[in-house]
Known about the structure:
The structure holds two protein chains of two kinds. Chain A has four helices and four strands, in the order ααβαβαββ. By secondary structure, chain A is of the alpha+beta class. By secondary structure, chain B is mostly helical. Chains A and B meet through α1 and α3 of A and α4, α5, α8 and α18 of B.
Amino acid sequence: MVKTLRNLGKQSLAGILVVYALYHGIISVKSAMHEYRERTIPDSVTAVEQRFRPLALQISGQRYRLGYVTNMNESMDWPGEFLRIQYTLAPLVIEDSMNAPVVVANIKDSRPVRALIPDPGPFTVVDCGNGVLLLSRKSH
Amino acid sequence: MILRFLVALLISFLLGFLSTSLIWPRSHCKRASLTLRVSLAFGLGAGISSCLLFAWLCFARESSASFMTFVATELFILIGLAVLHFSLKEPQASFAPVVVGQSDSCKLVSRLLLASLAVVTLCAGLTFLLISLRSPHGEFDAVSIWNMRARFLARGMDHWQDAFAESPSLPHPDYPLLLPSTVARIWKYMGREPVLVPIAVAFLFTFSTVAVLASSLAFLRNKRVGYLAGIIILSSYAFIAVGAWQYADLVIGFFMLCTLVFLGLYDSAAGQGQAGYLVLAGISAGLCSWTKNEGLLFVLVVLAVRLLLGINVKAVRLTIREASAILAGLLPILAVVAFFKTRIAPGNYYLNIGADYAPGPMQHILQHFLDPETTAHKVVNLSRYWFTAKAMAVEIFRFGGRTLGVTPLLGLYLICAGVKKDSLRIVWTGGTILAAMLAGYFFVYITTPFDLAFHLESSLTRLLLQLWPSAIFVLLMATSSASEPLCL
């Protein structure tokens, strides 16, 4: 008797597990579909790759460490953007510093370069477009 | 381009399939185990290929042309394995799953379960696809760790080791390379870097886990138990999502499951000549440590549990023989991991963080989450134990579901079904390994250098996911019996 009841309970629970899985399967698709519709186009990594492609072409084949400067703050996802730029420019290594001979500038500002950097000091500035600048030390 | 992609995948798959088949005990009904060996093939093959690529990067002076030497090496090994495989004659089976005629109601149950599995698999596939289309490069860890390293390995030429420089832009430089080198290898075969590759690798590992779980239970118990296992694991949104995010947690979960499956196969097979399963268990455990640092804990736990439980019930000599078989599979992979850890990678930041140390590579992200309390204070702070235990219990209770997790249902299932007599060994082995891993994770949280709440919030679900496929395997092995093949 006990064995039959336990067996019945086990099979009922197996049935409940199947129904549970079917319900969650459908809910998962709905949730993923909703997130897909709400997505930003292009996604954050592809957007950085598109912005930095001209710069990546300029420095391809080099192997020095790059410096990095930006006017973004932490509320603008500074760290995430920094890692996405490293991902884009690999295998070059980026340092969060202006001391390197070549520095990547990531400027979120629509003003022209001359207005942003009226005096580039020891750097030669190459504008790669979309707020991406390549600053090379004149001595480099 | 697609052809090169398929060739790279096929070589990995064949490497895994042939090496598994060669080590598989030859008396152990090879035809019946075909589905299981096919399910294992991609993962184990990717693990072997990744070790080969790493060795080639370390010891060959790379140039763009010389990648052909790597391809030639892989093909040479593949041909060698194929020749060995076909030259060894398959003996008569001494073990085969029990085949019993099914009643009509059993057939109906089988068909219903199979249909449900098909629907749940379709839903999981769609969910995976939608998440991958939304974030084709993967989520944060994939971009900042796994695919980032893959790009260095694929593009770096003779300075690929820059990937392990201590820089704020390169988090976790000590993480092992199974996943990055698997992706980099296929990119190098293709000569390009499409996002399809990490997506495909993540997809194959995610669904190989499901296939290994279902086919191992179908082989060791019966098809219905295998179908039910597949249905249960696919019901968890987190399982599919973390797979589609291209994280390594599902990859390590795959190798943990493989290890327990091989130990289960060994324990289920009566008689001599089954040491091949232990060698395969050793390889799988080794590949855990080549995937993530948690794998090193897993290796220690597996060895300790097998030794302790073995000495308890068997002669010391037999236990040592079993441990030697596991080590035969484990040591070559551990040698690769040891070389990487001692010669290439910098130290682990967990071990380096002190009161005045900002955690280098992650300083900009993690500096706000550092906990200034010393480790000694944390160990004696009982409130941390309570907080961690509560968080773990809540997460386990909710695991896999939206409101109610699947674990309470599985608990009830275990109570109703009870533990079968012929499952005691795998329950002891698997249960103790999983409990020890949970205990290990618990103490990592107790001593974490980060704010405890932040660390639990950011990693607990993923750590539990690593153990999830193995937990379902142990539970369904425990509640079903090979000697009662008609029961669910």
